[in-house]
Amino acid sequence: MAFFRKVHLLLEPDGKLLIQYPHALNFKDTLYPDLYYVEYSPRKIEHELRNNYKIITHEHCFDGRIIDLYDPKPYEPGNRTFKNGYLLIAEPKVKPKN
User: Fold this and answer.
1) Residue 31, C-beta contacts closer than 8 angstroms, at least 6 positions apart
2) Is residue 3 part of a domain?
3) β strands within the chain, DSSP E
4) For residue 2, is it left (φ>0), alpha (ψ between -120 and 50) or beta?
5) Does the N-terminal or the C-terminal CB of the chain have fewer CB atoms within 10 Å?
């Protein structure tokens, strides 16, 4: 949450937030993320953004699928690959103060 608040403060008035992140590949990842490689639940990311951002797009960055909690059909199961990433584009609901 601190990351998204900081970005909100730093965005230009017409700025957009664009991030690509590794999404959770199984239910266990949503409970005990690897401290060296955190895999996020798309549901959790949207929950953190709900008050300050309007989501423009939030989807699997490789094939456009929509995943909620974790990906039940990941690419190359057991391997960490860019193909198991999620793309988020959002804008502030209220323009940041400069």
Assistant:
1) none
2) no
3) 17-22, 53-60, 85-92
4) alpha
5) C
Residue 79 lies in a domain: yes
Residue 30: inside a domain: yes
Report yes or no: 93 and 54 within 8 Å, Cβ to Cβ: yes
| 84 DSSP assignment | G
The model carries a pTM of 0.83
Domain count, the chain: 1
Q: Which domain holds residue 32?
A: 21-83
